[in-house]
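# nightly structure sweep
# worker-07 picked up a monomer target from the shared queue
# config: single-sequence mode, recycle default, output format = structure tokens
# input follows
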Amino acid sequence: MKTTKLLLLVSVTLISLSSMSWLLSCCYSHKRMIQSSLPYSEKFNWPKAFKPADSDVFIHHEIDINASALVVWDILIHAAKWPEWYNRAEGLTLVKSADGKLGASGIFIWKPAGKFTAAIKEFNPPYHICRLGKTDHEKMTVYNARVIMPSRDGCKAILYQTRNGPKTKMEKILAPYMISNNIWQSLMGLKEKAEKQSKNQHRGGFFLNQGKMRIKKIMLAVLLVSGASQSSAQDKIMTSKWPVPTNVQGLLFYIQRDPDINTVCYTVKLNDDGDVDLKDPIDIFWIRYAENGKRKKLSTIQREFGYGLSFKPITADSILVKALSFPNRAMHLVRNQNKSYVVKMKISGHICELKRIYLRITGGSALAPQIEYIEFYGVDPQTRELITDRIDLR
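# output follows
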């Protein structure tokens, strides 16, 4: 009898310790989830009490999709068709939507876990949409934020979700991974739907429009957008506000954009013999003029999704250069007659040495800026005349 009681006591103790360890691991996972979501989760205008660190539950998932941002965006806003790729959306009802799609003031009601009403809070096509939802009596409130980031093979879909309320607290204790799994299943369904739709998508004028839309993403496709309208050298906009990088060895060209004067520089990388490094020929870094001109490396995200380049050697002195995000307008890194390296690019019908790119940003958010136009500045290698080109995005 004593042995039985002792074994029972030991079992209860082990179960209690396991439960405590499990609960502690859930808390740690919450912190890890927040860290893994940076830096983009910090850029949202999270409602009060819904910031990831302040919420009862925070979930972050992302998935690569072999389909364009526009295809994914169209699927996301077409809420009436969500049940086709996410079974928990069965019975969804849109409020005041004639075409079954969500807009900037969209509202819908569904029952993924009881009656749930959600309203759109941020709507920045085709990259960024957020909604705030709540159950009756606010037993659960949820803020759901989605980001679509164009990539070299299509796009990356990112989902952040914060939850509060007594029902959330109970789920966190009894089924902490159920919430995360449901969200992951929705991303898997989105991926399958988008890739299937993309295969059936007509590839004629679609990608021409896609090229123009991708420019609106922060720091994307600045270098390589086709179909630009032309402007003359007299239309150049070079004001005293913008610093010109000096004493930058091997400078090829640089990028400047609102809202500050910080500048991204591209410089050639040479080996000990003075020849270009064929594997990694261009170095990219910030000159932070707003911070006393200090230099700073690009982050992985900036290099991968914003300012990154890919390279393909053609000869020992010629390298094809393309942006990772939209490689439809090529540049060439070449050695000129003076034995120095330049980047050549077609600007207003002229093959020029690219010198500067400028983005005029008039508003929006960090994830979805409103870009009014993009300007390219180059020099004719024969006449040394300044040639400019503008892409108007209004």
